[in-house]
Amino acid sequence: MASYHGNTRSGAPEIEQIITVIFAGCLHIILESRCPYVSFPKHSSEQILSFPFPSPSSSPSPPSSCSSSSIGLRDKWFKLAHRDCPAALENIGFSHQSNLEPMIVDVILVKRSGNWDLVNYSPKRGYARNLSGKEWYRCSSENDEFGCEIESEKIIERWVVQYESKQSGDNGGGVMGSNRATCKSSHELYKKSILLLRSLYATVRLLPAYKVFRDLISSAQIRAYNLGHRVSSFVEPFTGREEADMQSFVFPPLDTSCGRLCLSVVYFSSELDIISEPSTPISPQVIHEYVGSPMVEPLKRFTAVPVSQCSPSSSPFGRRHSWSYDLYRVSPSSVNPSPSPTYSESCASMPKQLSHRFPPASLRHHIPNETPPAHMKDPNFHEYWPSPTFSPSSSPSPSPPAYNPASHILKALFRSESAPFGLSVSRLSPLASMPKNQLLPPSPSMGTCGHRVAKTDGYAGLYPTGSMVDKLFASAKEEAGKLSGVKQSSNSSSMKSFSRSPSRFSFQDNFDDSEFSGLLIPDDDDLPESSTRPDAAALFHLLEKAPPLRPDISITTNLVQDSKPVIEEISPESLLGESASLNFSSSEIESSKTTADAFTELVEYKKMKELLLKQCKGTQA
Amino acid sequence: MNCEVCQLNELEVEHFEIREVLRCILHTILFHRALGLVRPKDVDLELFEITYVQCGDVEVERKIDEKIDQFIDRVEKHPKKKNQICLSFYEVKNKQATWFTNKVEHLYWEQWYINLNVMQHPKTPSGKSHHSKLVVDPGVEAGGARRAALEASLRDVLFQIIKFVNEKKDHVPSIPNLEGFLFPYEITISRFCIQDGYVQEDAPDTSSIDAQLIIIALKFTLLLSPCREVKYVALCLKVNMIKPTVCKLELYSIVETEG
Fold it and tell me: Has the ipTM of the complex gone over 0.90?
């Protein structure tokens, strides 16, 4: 670049250099406002800039108000500090070998086909290919940056930058003719080139394509179109029809001592002509009515239960409902894929004491830490744990059940902080508001279970009226056996039974049978609806009289007193209306173990009490 | 050095549109005359789908807003008159004050006239409505076509600026003479004034006596003479004027109306 120290000579090489820089500057300004997705060059921008932009050592230094360190080499040329455009830089790299070759920049509107994958959407950076030596760079390919098929391409703008040398003899094509003063010095040319680029910078923002560009870069929506560009030296001219729909704007040419620089643009005048298809929004939307949502099908969720130990992903119903967690505090560690926490958690938190007595085979799969006891093959198992009754995919094959609908009842009986099944179900809605100390299983159930466990593990002396407990377990056994038959039934009937079974979990029905059986076994159509309330009431009364062994047991006793009226209020509708009854976690297994231990101690205490009473009587005598 | 004058097309605007329209036009002109290093700032108009470019200088923005406020005040005081803003670029010739005058001579080398015809509407209940940027007149909804036409006209004005900037570049001072990033400029709210042909700064609210006489004479002529003679009178007035003034605009408008 020629110095400004009074050098008025034409300086042809300097002028040529300025023309080259003008070409690059025009390309940069155009692509900066037309290229929404740009790639980043492997090499540094400074290296690219150093090629076409010689050092403006003789140019006026920038004002002191702007720190030169933050301004790129390119900016110093035309006093325009704007953002980098790697697309332009890459195109410059392919280069514009000669100023005599026109530089034609086509801005292309790429419309995508309708079948494009939103899930696998990933904007691909970079450009596709270089079609030919004449086409310096091509943005779009058969598949654009999003991997979508291109439906159509439309040139919405065509910028032409052309330098006509005077030596070529073509100087009369200018719009203003030859009346314009020729830039006899590089200084003049430099000043006018700054003005030209200022005008270009403002013009690109006034054309309709700029709005398309802004929509693409600003909107979070993925639209059915994209902007691409093509830089070339030779292009096919527009047809007459295309030209009729387009407008043109020609910048007054820049005359130099060596030639004339012309800049023009042909564009579509209306944005409506550019875009004719609505965009496809992909903004995140909350779907309230999904399959299995309680708002859509509040009843159906109880039927959509898997049967096998399939992974949650394989079963369409394997996903837990998040709405059940808050109520029942489901632990994510639960491994049961069943969507119904009522039954899945019951399997997971099955206490050891009962597991070897009433173990569903599926528990081995759902409690990884549990070692499968030998007696899991107990034929009584199927009697007590009708497993796949609740799964729509239930098969008559003797596959181990994925869950145990009644196991949660037993768990409830042994839990120190969990309400009995019937009680907990009755309080499904107010469970969240119910304090923990009230969520205790009924003492009859607990005592019964303890007695049952004691039968095998030495808990025989838990209840003085062992016959009562035996009666409970016997009824439970009968019901379990009936339910096992349900296992072999068809899906519809099993679903039907399942849907109706919660009604049988009500204490009102359970105590019609016995103190215990109704709590253990889910009801079935074949199960007689016998009341167990009198026996249960007696058992509760017994436990009420017993002194507290542990604080939790005393709370249990209080709960029995408090829960008694509530039990009566249980209705099938309330059970059906609740999302899930019990969710048992591993922590609850421990609490049930603690409860079992408490009953063990209770039994021992009873023995000691009787012994002491005998001794007292003996001493008194 | 010649003083190039550009009369931009007249725009018919609502009161609440004045600020945006003037900002757009003034900043666009200044951006083309800020030949120093600038950091362009793209600004989207709120009332129109137009993006214009600013120099990115806070001082320039403040000065423009100040003048726009003055213009709006004047429009409110004289609602029935056409108003004009003049943006002039000058060179300072004599920086040193002389014995007799401290006035520094400004040699204008370019003037831009922005003509606005502010439509009159009944006053809104709010006080200074021109300070609220987005006060939407209830009638705007009904004037959608008018708004679209104004947007197109504004876009034409911007293209007019671009064309003028590129067509006439020789009168622009050389860059080494540039102090700072922008040539010295001033913004005036012009009134009718024929005195020495220059637009008067802080012109009186009423037109000068000479201008009033000319207007009266022209109107009298219209009553007595056919249209051809009226045009002849206007042409004579133009020839006799040394510099273009605002008065000429009204004369032309009268001629066009009668012609």
Answer: no
Q: Which tokens go with A270?
A: 């209306």
pTM of the model: 0.50
Q: Which residues pair with A226 in a beta bridge?
A: A110
Contact B37 A211 (CB under 8 A): no
> Looking at chain A, how many residues does it have?
621
Q: Collect all residues of chain B within an 8 Å Cβ-Cβ radius of residue A184.
A: none
Note whether B10 and B110 are within 8 A (CB).
no
Token pair in block for residue A364: 């081995």
Classify residue A132 by its DSSP letter.
-
Of A373, A366, A539, A376, the residue nearest A451 (C-alpha): A539
| Rounded Cα–Cα distance for residues A595 and A589 (Å) | 10
pLDDT tens-digit series, residues A505-556: 444 444 444 444 444 444 444 444 444 555 678 887 888 888 777 555 444 4
For residue A258, is it left (φ>0), alpha (ψ between -120 and 50) or beta?
alpha
| DSSP secondary structure string for all residues of A443-509 | HHHHHHHHHHHHHHHS-GGG-S-HHHHHHHHHHHHHHHHHHHHHHTS-HHHHHHHHHHHHHHTSHHH
Residue A184: how many other CB atoms lie within 10 Å: 16
Nearest to A63 among B37, B42, B174 (CB): B37
State the number of CA atoms in the 13 A half-sphere of B3 facing the CB.
22
CA B123, B129, B132: angle at the middle one, nearest 5? 150
